[in-house]
Amino acid sequence: MSPEDQKAWEDDEMTATVNLETSHIDPAPFQLVERTSLLKVHSLFSMVGVNHAYVTAIGRLVGVVGLKELRKAIEDANSGTFTSQNATTVPNSAEDATPSEPLVEEKKPAS
Questions:
Q1: Residue 91 DSSP class
Q2: Tell me: the pLDDT tens digits for 7-17?
Q3: Is 43 a residue whose pLDDT tops 70?
Q4: CA 40, 102, 74: angle at the middle one, nearest 5?
Q5: For residue 108, which of 19, 62, 88, 96 sits 20 to 30 Å off, Cα-Cα?
Q6: 91 pLDDT band (50/70/90 cuts)?
Q7: Quick one: pLDDT at residue 84?
């Protein structure tokens, strides 16, 4: 696709009407701050009954935590093998991993 064709396609896509009739948009999504501990996140997920939460820093989206990933992080923390694949907060060592370690930290934008 040539640059001109790409520009024309982008312009068409940006001016196209989007049908949101079949989309579910949560007007009040569940949010966590970036330094929320695993224990607190687990408690909130259990009490509120959510499957995912948006992680924010100063009101800006920095990540998403899902129930499946939360359960895996708690399991790993309890077994002493906590590692972070998608989050950027990692305990200093496996011995330091506890359920109160932060799950997500702000990701730095790529330059």
A1: -
A2: 999 999 999 99
A3: yes
A4: 65
A5: 96
A6: very low
A7: 56
Residue 47 domain flag: yes
CATH of residue 84's domain is 3.10.580.10
**Domain assignment of residue 12, yes or no:** no
DSSP secondary-structure letter at 27?
S
| Predicted pLDDT of residue 59 | 87
Residue 11 within a domain: no
Write down the residue that tokens 């999504």 correspond to.
Answer: 29
- Contact between 33 and 55 under an 8 Å Cβ cutoff? The reply is yes
Domain that holds residue 61: 30-106
Q: What is the pLDDT of residues 21-34, one digit of tens each?
A: 888 888 888 999 98
Rounded-to-integer distance, Cα 51 and Cα 30, Å: 10
**Cα–Cα distance, 32 to 101 (Å, whole number):** 14
Query: How far apart, in Å, do the first and last CA atoms of the chain sit?
Result: 26
Bridge partner residues of 36 (DSSP): none
Overall number of domains in the chain? 1
